[in-house]
Design a protein that fits this description.
By secondary structure, this protein is α/β, with parallel strands linked by helices. The chain is 45% helix and 22% strand. It is globular. The two termini are 18 Å apart. The structure holds 5-nitro-6-ribityl-amino-2,4(1H,3H)-pyrimidinedione. The site of 5-nitro-6-ribityl-amino-2,4(1H,3H)-pyrimidinedione (INI) has 15 residues, from strand 3.
Length: 154
């Protein structure tokens, strides 16, 4: 039996974080958690790029453009969509998620969805570095592990 597991080593991993300014008080916390996790996994800050965009709907295109570059290994999307704050929550949450999935499959590179979709500001706060952890940090771990899994299968 052959079993493949990606490891959690970010050394040499060229990572792009695409962050939305919408709900910046939350996305800044996701960004901080992502940067911290990347370095804790052995990543070099010189290999990390942060790109700001207006909102979650702009993330998939920008993520795809960076993922297409040969010097980029993986992209992490960081955003926050709160149901209470928008009547078109389902559109923003759904389109950003499906756009990211399509971009990842089209480019063949990990583009990990770290966009929070919550009912309330409290739930978003809980997932941005308080009692439910930091989903930005989780997304970086997922990107690094996925890269490792792909590398061993290629
Ligand atoms: N963008 C977000 O990232 N989060 C939201 O909660 C949100 N709301 O509430 O509408 C949001 N809208 C902006 C959208 O992502 C685009 O930036 C905008 O529609 C311009 O294309």
């Amino acid at each position: 039996m052959k079993e493949i597991k990606g490891n959690l080593n970010a050394k040499g991993v060229k990572l792009v974080l695409v962050v939305s300014r919408f709900n910046e008080f939350i996305t800044k916390q996701l960004l901080e958690g992502s940067q911290d996790m990347y370095q804790r996994l052995g990543g070099d800050p010189a290999d990390l790029t942060v790109v700001w965009v207006p909102g979650a709907l702009e993330i998939p295109l920008v993520a795809k453009k960076y993922a297409e570059q040969s010097d980029v290994d993986a992209v992490v999307a960081l955003g926050c969509v709160i149901r209470g704050a928008t009547y078109h929550f389902d559109v923003v949450a759904g389109q950003s998620a499906s756009g990211l999935m399509k971009a990842s499959l089209d480019t063949g590179k990990p583009i990990v969805n770290g966009i929070l979709t919550t009912d309330t500001i409290e739930q978003a706060t809980e997932r941005a570095g308080t009692k439910a952890g930091n989903k930005g940090a989780d997304a970086v771990m997922a990107a690094v592990e996925t890269l490792g899994a792909i590398a061993k299968g290629s």
